Amino acid sequence: MRAYLAAQALGTVTPRTLRKHVNDVILPTLGINSIISESTAQRWLRSKLGYECKETKKGMYMDGHERPDVIKERGEFLEQILGRYER
Questions:
Q1: Contact between 9 and 30 (Cβ < 8 Å)
Q2: Is the pTM of this model over 0.70?
Q3: pLDDT value for 51
Q4: Residue spans of alpha helices (H) in the chain
Q5: Burial 20-38 (b: 16+ CB within 10 A, else e)
């Protein structure tokens, strides 16, 4: 189970996906004719496997490079720099 969880992408592990994998792959491989519920998978993730339920967010940073005042300052800066080299 730990190998399966380690192979999953960050933020994609859910009790539902763990339950499905345990019921479809792990238990039949072990010859066990039983299934686990989603609440059991949730308890296993939290207590036995050390996972926490957290909301994941994409790491997006906005630098404001398209704001009108930034565009104006950039243009003035470029004019100043180009003016020095055009002499």
A1: no
A2: no
A3: 86
A4: 2-6, 15-21, 27-29, 38-43, 68-85
A5: ebbbeeeeeeeeeeeebee
